[in-house]
């Protein structure tokens, strides 16, 4: 009997080669396969009268062939097949290419069901390359067909077949919900829901199936979070920092005035630090809102109270930047800062680790290198993680466990609407910096067609002549990318091209993710010190770098980026005294592209951008990317399912209230579900 954890390669139609492709999509087991849910559905069961069909849409029609099928050879093995069909309302030409065998399948006078895309030109209807059935068969039409997220190299029909085979292997999937919930909500069984979500018998069944699976997914997350929160509460007491150490000492010495929002969050943090509960706080603030200084001031409080503080950054570039910042701010109070990154020599690292262990280093800044086992602290009291979405829960707890119940501050520029944040970060308190420093100049954002490249480049030249620097960001070009990547150019190619022609008199360099951390850092340092004029890069520069002299951000193929991401990129400029520009170069002219570009030009508020992004892209994309550090869902959509999520949260609170660790017999199934789904999700970033 096949088991859910069996390797997917044994499913009929998969095999070694296809299994490798599926692995890339995160499908390793039979269970992964049958929980690979459709992205969409095509209703091939609803028959439309020919007279009701319009250009560009897909339809199922039932029509009689009123001519014999013709088969015209075009040379070089190519051919074209045509037949005219008719229903009670209109006629239509059906065309196939290179499928001469169809000639034997379509007979004049017979009725068929066709499904395909309709083109209407000057009143003439034509359907190209439809699938079809003779009227009393439902092989390709007459039903609701799942559409799966595209997997390169595997045809849509093949994926469908493979999933069908997978479902055929398992009998009666084990129920995941306790009886009391199944009864209360009148749920479809887990087994039926799984089958119906792939191959719904009708839309009503589909809706029931989806409701059931969304419930499973969201409830396990909520129960998991609440359970975690409960477990955290039972821990021993946190550190009580010295009330006599005043943050204002540093605040008064700063070269700028903190914004009211910064002062407010520092007050929250100060309160948390002074009481005996461990701080567990999320600090949210748009790019450029000044989160770093908040972290540094908190570190001051920790150190002067006798503890070490750690600031964890996702990249070496950022770690170095924070290190410089911390030194500049804190050394005058006799605080020793230390930086630990991957690129250090063994000797440097050994020295740094010694200082951390014996307590000589007081504020320690670094990357993942700090998570390694051989890093020991003397008296770690405060942990700050910057751009937290780059760190998973596990990494966060790895560093926390190096201290003695330290206070934790998690910083993020991810604009999540507050209602959602409260639910998702159930285990954290939240502070928001909702105000930018006053000296910020508005960044002028323009969207231009790719065709205006030369004008954009001339503009860059002019700015560079005046001593400024520019970023040019290209989308990632995947090797497996299909046809729509034809007009994409990689950062490396573009840098080479520009250095040779447009910008041959300037210093152009390239920065991309495949480079070694050390190389990246060198390039970034050179850009910072002004040795590079134009930096062509992938989105590796997206997070947090601060080069005040750079005042132009050009984004190539801006239509390929999410709005929230464009907003993050834009936040790289406008950090100094110079007027700054963000130029979005786009190709294509679709309604959505235009609307998205317009949003970027009109809105400079990260939260509004994020909301618009959700509206235009749907949260599948928005939340699907690791960018946002939200858990990935297989079926739930945090945007459109928000109401359901609220209800589920209430259910979860009730369940955990009665049975905090899910130990009761009636919650046995739920415990199993949470253990399986929630720990599995922990691997991802929450
Ligand atoms: P982010 O929140 O995106 O991490 P940073 O902490 O990098 O933002 O701050 C961006 C820039 O703004 C830095 O150069 C920082 O020194 C500066 N800055 C921070 N707070 C203020 C303020 N209140 N007034 C003026 N400049 C500030
Ligand atoms: Mg930052």
Strand and helix layout:
Elements: H1 15-24, H2 30-34, E1 40-43, E2 58-65, E3 70-75, E4 78-86, E5 91-97, E6 111-121, E7 124-134, E8 144-147, H3 156-169, H4 179-185, H5 190-198, H6 203-233, H7 248-253, H8 260-274, E9 280-285, H9 291-304, E10 308-312, H10 316-330, E11 337-340, H11 346-358, E12 363-366, E13 380-385, H12 393-400, E14 407-412, H13 418-424, E15 429-433, E16 444-449, H14 453-465, E17 469-473, H15 491-500, E18 508-511, H16 517-528, E19 534-537, E20 550-555, H17 563-570, E21 581-586, H18 591-602, H19 606-617, H20 619-624, H21 642-658, H22 668-682
Parallel strand pairs: 5-7, 9-14, 9-15, 10-12, 10-13, 11-12, 13-14, 16-21, 17-19, 17-20, 18-19, 20-21
Antiparallel strand pairs: 1-8, 2-4, 2-6, 3-4, 4-5, 6-7
Bound molecules: adenosine-5'-diphosphate and magnesium ion.
Magnesium ion binds at residues 291-292, 386, 544.
